[in-house]
Amino acid sequence: MSRPAVFLDRDGVVIEDVSYLDTIDRLALFPWTIDTIRALNRAELPVVVVTNQSGVARGFFTEAFVDEVHRALDARLRAGGARIDAFYYCPHHPDGSVAEYARSCDCRKPACGLIDRAARDLDLDPARSFVVGDKWSDIEMARAAGARGVLVETKTSGVPPPRHVTADAVTENLAAAASWILENLRSGDRVIGDRPSPI
Ligand SMILES: [Mg+2]
Ligand SMILES: [Zn+2]
Fold it and tell me: Which residues form the catalytic set?
């Protein structure tokens, strides 16, 4: 039976958005990242990163480097007892300079190809899942996939949403977003005993 999951944008949600992370030494987790992901793990919600990495298409870094970043991030999380279940990224961009990646695709957010792929691979149910992102394109992806979208309000402060796009919740950071998600899990998706159930 398909499970609900939490899909996390990477840059600006799990790690600081340094604009095209291209060296490992610029990888910086937020102070709340490890504790928050561990709380999601405890609730038995698969945690899946879905991220646009057009720096590959732009020739700023390679796919091998993106994988290296994800291994380094994974190591830091594991050292703190937290786990990301899978990483999915889009390396494309229509205006890219690397021919192999310079195209439109169905996996660059706001399209939901990454969620579709993860749902197939990991047997997840997007309709019972959540997306946390710091751009309206993350929320548009949630809508396209039929998931609920929680906006972390850093990038979007003062930026009006595209027409007809609304977030299910707007929060300060990933920690607050995860609290909202754990409170808004459907009763059937809640791990018994994880936290007091509302009456
Ligand atoms: Mg982001
Ligand atoms: Zn793509």
Answer: 9, 11
Measured between alpha carbons, how far is 75 from 187 in angstroms, rounded to an integer? Answer: 33
Ligand 1 geometric centre to CA of 131 (Å):
12
Is this prediction's pTM over 0.90? yes
Other beta carbons less than 10 A from residue 69's beta carbon? 22
Using one digit for the tens of pLDDT, what is the confidence trace for 162-171?
888 999 999 9
Q: Report the chain's C-alpha Rg in angstroms.
A: 16
Quote the CA–CA distance of 145 and 139 in Å, as a whole number. Answer: 10
pLDDT tens, position by position, 92-142: 999 999 999 999 999 999 999 999 999 999 999 999 999 999 999 999 999
Query: Do residues 136 and 159 touch, judged by C-beta distance below 8 A?
Result: yes
**The tokens 């890219």 sit on which residue?**
96
The Cβ of residue 26 has, within 10 Å, a number of other Cβ atoms equal to 13
Q: How far lies 155's CA from each of 133, 138, 152, in Å? A: 10, 11, 8
Which ligand does the CA of 11 lie closest to? 1
Question: Are the CB atoms for 152 and 132 separated by under 8 Å?
Answer: yes
Q: What gap in Å lies between CA 164 and CA 39, rounded to an integer?
A: 32
Please tell me what DSSP assigns to residue 136: H
Residues 90 and 194: their CA atoms lie apart, in Å, by: 34
Q: Residue 186 C-alpha to ligand 2 middle, in angstroms?
A: 31
